[in-house]
Amino acid sequence: MKMDRVVNIMMYLAGMAFNLALMALVAFLVLSFFNRGFNAGRDFADDMVSEGTYYEREFHIPEDASASEIARRLEEEGIIHNRWLFQLELFLRGASREFSAGTYVINLSMNNVEINRALRVRPYEAAPHEVITIAEGTTIREMAEYFEERGFFTAERFIYVAQYEHFSFSFLLDVPEGRPNRLEGYLFPDTYFIPVNPSPSDIIIRMLHNFDQQFTEDFHNRLYELEEAGRGMSIDEVIIKASIIERETRLAEERALVSQVIHNRLAQNMLLQMCSTVKYLMDDPPLRLLNVHLAVDTPYNTYMHAGLPVGPIANPGAAAIQAALWPAATDYLFFVLRDEATGAHHFSRTMAEHYAARDRYLD
What is the pLDDT of residue 34? Predict the structure, then answer.
């Protein structure tokens, strides 16, 4: 009797194991079916967003990162659609061990199996690549000249692609059709690993993807708060303001103050009168503008035209964007450069204070 009972228990456990394995297999097949649908949709989206199926994204794995952490980050960065399916596939294929630290190349058209394989190849630092670094406040023209100096392509080629090629990112929907330097403000300044012999699109798409990630959920929530408070702004208006902040001051502690001056002047229907906007179209602008410069009529001349300029005047970093969304709580309306060496400004509340400061610091 005891032997029969043991045999029955063993058969029961074996049946349970078989059923669990069968359920896992069925789950894998079902999820794989849906994943093919996800991948088909992703391939179509990549054709739309990434200008071709060969667009590559860098993905960094820190030291001691587990497979579950990597799967979560892959999902958060939009590289995979379902981290649980990714982990299930790793488990069923016996590949759930930890990955090696490094920066890897992932093609956005890859499926989960291919991504897993790519993350087990040598890190990107060991592969042939170029490194570019773009500072906050750089313009498209300045970028183009830098890329030409690096021998990638001509400056005019980069400017042409940035202006006329189609890049399907939702934040670009606010940008008016035909605006000069259409992508100005959205090519996020950062350090990038790019392919050897890159095309303009290789660089532009990376920068636009980075902008999409850097314009965080907190920024979007702030836009919603401002709209609810009756002070709504579009993303484009935020970036125009951020670009002016970036070019008007190089001091971190002044960004929110410059932002408040911009907000206050617009709220009081005052001309912005920002020198940086006038300088935008000048090939070699002087440190201080003269009346003859201020008399040139362009869509960027905020001494002549009310409101914001027609578009951003540079590509701002995250700190300037944050300042545009969270200006300081002051009633300043003016500022003037008081120290050319440090770039520090004197801020004033009234015209009389401003004239006194200007006489003091500009003489």
Answer: 47
- Residue 282 phi, psi (nearest 5): -90, 135
Whether the Cβ atoms of residue 315 and residue 137 lie closer than 8 Å to each other? yes
Q: How many domains does the chain have?
A: 3
Out of 34-38, 110-114, 262-266, the most confident range is: 262-266
Question: Can you tell me the distance from the alpha carbon of 96 to that of 159, in angstroms, rounded to the nearest whole number?
Answer: 45
User: Do residue 292 and residue 346 come from a single domain?
Assistant: yes
- Which residues sit opposite 61 in a β-bridge? 102
Q: How would residue 122 be classed by pLDDT, with cut points 50, 70 and 90?
A: low
Give residues with Cβ within 8 angstroms of 304, minimum separation 6. Answer: 271, 294, 295, 297
Residue 139 lies in a domain: yes
Residue 32's pLDDT is 53
Distant-in-sequence, close-in-space partners of 19: CB < 8 Å, separation ≥ 6 = none
What pLDDT shows up at residue 45? 40
- pLDDT category, 11, cuts 50, 70, 90? low
CA-CA distance, 102 to 325, in Å (whole number)?
34
- What are 191's strand-pairing partners? 133
Distance from C-alpha of 324 to C-alpha of 327, rounded to nearest angstrom: 6
- CATH code where residue 89 lies: 3.30.1490.480
Q: Is 246 found in the same domain as 140? A: no
195, 202 contact by CB (below 8 A):
yes
Q: Which of 126, 157, 187 is the last residue of a domain?
A: 126
Model-level pTM greater than 0.85? Answer: no
- 7 domain residue, yes or no: no
Q: Tell me which residue range forms the domain holding 140.
A: 130-214
